[in-house]
Amino acid sequence: MKEILLIEVKSELGAGTRGASLGIDAVKIASIDLQSDFFARYDSVNVRTDNSPLFTGFISPSAKYVNAIIGVEKRVCNAVCEALEFGQLPMVLAGDHSTAFGTIAGVKKAFPDKRLGVIWVDAHADLHTPYTTPSGNVHGMPLAMALGTDNRDVQTNEPPAEVAHIWEEIKKIGVEGPKLHPSDVVFISKRDTEAPEDYLAEKFGMRNYTTEEVRKYGPKKVAAMALEQLRECDMIYVSFDVDSLDPSVSVGTGTPVPGGLTVEEAKVINTELVKSPKVLCWEMVEINPTLDSENKMAEVAFEIMEATARSFEDSRMKPVLV
Ligand SMILES: NC(=[NH2+])NCCC[C@H](N)C(=O)O
């Protein structure tokens, strides 16, 4: 049986509001309050992070803290790659979504010849680049990094040479060049995007299953449809941003958007997705307890993570021969 390895990434340099690096500990506290032994059950590794640049300021408004984020991306990439090479099932628990690029790079580094598909369960597309970002927040850019695109067709910013250089270096992490093809990305509950992101999504026909479609077909069917969409892929990574949940569940995340999933829908989607033997890595991000009350977001996030871990593990158990 393959074993789960928890990979903790307490970085929040990519978010626009402060506090996401505390999300990992908030989830641990939730597990204790919910009387679960989850964090005793699985081994975990801590990726080295350093949020201290927040005290001194960013290098450029077109990609804030990207000079420090590049180091975290490399370390996440190596941790994920090592876990996969070791035959483990990495479940990444990270602060802001920017480091999901490191995860993707790590998956590709471990299996460079395999075709990778990504299921992005998120209110956002995270397809910006330093050339298009409206906010400069790098958590809006990880999927563009993975696709290796600059999206200059619809450029709105002129980043300084230093940022352009770091951006080029980031895109090389793991393996040279794009980690996946844009048509091998599927979104679930994406509902808050900007024009340059829509341009890419339309150009490459990137499928989004809206919250309405989740209601219409049911979360189980949508998970099956998302997997079917990626049938040509050899391996799949699932990235779950808690802002895919509706703000009525909790506002404990930096960029909440109305019209999101219920806890039950998110639970069904994630537990169904990881049943696919092609799914080899799952991640959860953007829990921010400083924006929350009574640790609500961490509690529901933990509930989803625990159910997903159980499904991930159970579906990989070898049948017992009698
Ligand atoms: N993973 C996230 N929470 N991303 C939020 C991105 C919001 C917005 N599109 C931006 O680029 O600033």
Would you kindly provide a written description of the structure presented here, covering whatever features stand out?
With 322 residues, the chain is an alpha/beta fold. 39% of the residues lie in helices and 14% in strands. The chain has a single domain, classed as Ureohydrolase domain (Arginase, Chain A, 3-Layer(aba) Sandwich). The chain is built from twelve helices and eight strands. An eight-stranded parallel beta sheet has the order 2-1-3-8-7-4-5-6, with helices on both faces. Helix 10 (219-229) packs parallel to helix 11 (263-273). It binds arginine (ARG). Residues 97, 122, 124, 126, 128, 133-135, 137, 139-140, 194, 241, 243, 254-255, 286 line the site of arginine.
Give the helix/strand class: alpha/beta
- Average pLDDT metric: 97
What does the largest sheet look like? 8 strands, parallel
CATH homologous superfamily grouping: Ureohydrolase domain
CATH topology: Arginase, Chain A
Total of DSSP H or I helical runs spanning 4+ residues: 12
> Which stretches are poorly predicted, pLDDT < 50 over at least 5 residues?
none
Helix percentage: 25-40%
Question: Which kinds of small molecule does this entry bind, naming each only once?
Answer: arginine
- Overall number of domains: 1
- Spatially, the strands of the biggest sheet line up as 2-1-3-8-7-4-5-6
Helix/strand order = EHHEHHEHEHHEHEHHEHEH
Query: What is the radius of gyration computed over CA atoms, rounded to a whole number of angstroms?
Result: 18 Å
Please identify the top-level CATH class.
Answer: Alpha Beta
The CATH architecture classification is: 3-Layer(aba) Sandwich
| Through-space gap between termini | 17 Å
